[in-house]
Amino acid sequence: MARGGVLYRAAMEQARALAASRRMFVDGKWVEASNGATYAIPNPATEEPIGTAPDATVDDMRRAIAAARRAFDGGPWPQTSRQDRARVLTAVADGMERRKEELRQLVIAEAGATYLTHDIQIEQPIRMMRNYAELALGFDFEEQLPTRVSESMLGTQVNSGIVYRHPAGVCGLIPTWNFPLFVTVQKLGPALATGCTMVFKPSPYGPLINLFLAEIVAEADLPPGVVNFVTGQSNAIAETLVSDPRIDKVSFTGSVATGKKIMEAAAKTLKRVHLELGGKSVAIFLDTDNLDLIAPQAASPTFFHAGQGCAMTTRVLIPREAHDTLVQKMVDFVQGMVKIGDPADPGTFLGPVIREERRQKIEEYIESGKREGAVLAHGGGRPKDLRRGYFLEPTIFCAVPNTIRIAQEEIFGPVVSVIPFADEDEAIRIANDSTYGLGGMVLTRDTAKALALAKRIRTGVVWINNGLNFLDAPFGGFKESGIGREGGRFGMEEYTEMQQIVWKA
């Protein structure tokens, strides 16, 4: 990594300038933590601080919740027209577009995101925000019920009715750090489009991008208290958010363990809960006549955002007779093509993981894979020429039993497990032998066969031949991968409460 290079210095200087003065956004005002505390945010590629974020107290969180509650109960936002909501959403999208290059530098510096990821990190959130503006105009907030005849003591009557969708209320929104803008927009967009108010509590690993987005939101002419951002390291502020009776709904993206704690805390006041949690997704490759073509796809979790994605296909399933050849071609690809280093360099494929504690956890998984019988085909260590930064080599295990930890638990790092199968039925059994149920992929020229197999996979998402639809399709998981869905009209529905209104015609 050319630490002294012009590219690196310019990116770091811009990121520091963007990050240095970030404050929280509460009740329409920019505020520090009430005790003045801040904490440093490192660049994961350099370990150098890029800025500080407010380290909020429980009282700070309670003030934000109170502001959101007032804005919902007594403010104009829940009663605004579709057109006004669409106008605000479009203004936020326009602001993101206008400041896209600043967002890019923050995503590089704070999340360690290489240019390879920037469509999903930056471009897609802007498209999603515009799509939510369209949904605000076209969503069915009011649905006509069929006319029915009923009998009562008063005789026969004809009944008409509607289903009316109210805003869900005050939302506690907890996005994760790996795709920070994408995940936050998946909550911000539908919450605004349906007339909710909200308090965001970003991950301690990713506050600066969220606070920069708050600056864009603040320019969109929203009433005070509709959108609030509170940052901090303490679990207590998140616990306050999810347990406070003034919060009507919680949406969390993150780990299964934390999701279970949120459900437990929210149950005390019977809040609505949306959870988008972990995954151990499979890629089932059926065709074996062009392994050179599929090897980069199979190896992609070892380099794309350092494997830090809940739906990445970290279990690669391949017919047994092609297993050894595919593994070698995957190794050849990562050795020859995957450049490890500075995410500010557009030629870098593999950047750092987010923190040293995450790197150490991933290394524990790598050691467990060796102990439990998987074959390490490539990687498994730290790049010898990168002495600073939380880097790991792209790591490929092969001949992996589906029963061991690296095949069953979410690693969230640049590690892939190649698993052979004898026939399609065994591939489906392996795919479904997991406590997770988030994503999956089937790749074959026989689309009809792929569609039939996809319907047998117990996951919320199955991509066939790299098909992708972020704007309209529901995203979420079966089993321990979560509850509820985000995306398109399905995401809108998560932020509404249904009310029946029936009258005698």
Care to describe what's here?
The chain is globular, with a radius of gyration of 24 Å. Helix 6 (180-193) crosses helix 16. The chain contains 16 helices and 21 strands. The strands form five sheets. A seven-stranded mixed beta sheet has the order 15-16-17-14-13-18-19, with helices on both faces. With 505 residues, it is α/β, with parallel strands linked by helices. 39% of the residues lie in helices and 20% in strands. The model has no long low-confidence stretch (mean pLDDT 95). 52% of the residues are buried.
Q: How is this structure best summarized?
A:
By secondary structure, the protein is an alpha/beta fold.
The coarse silhouette is globular
Oligomerization category of the chains in this entry: single chain
In round numbers, the mean pLDDT is 95
The class by helix and strand makeup works out as alpha/beta
Instruction: List how many beta strands DSSP finds.
Output: 21
Task: Enumerate how many helices there are, as a single number.
Answer: 16
The description of the largest β-sheet is: 7 strands, mixed
Q: Nearest-angstrom radius of gyration?
A: 24 Å
How much β-strand is present in the residues? 15-25%
Spatial strand order of the main sheet: 15-16-17-14-13-18-19
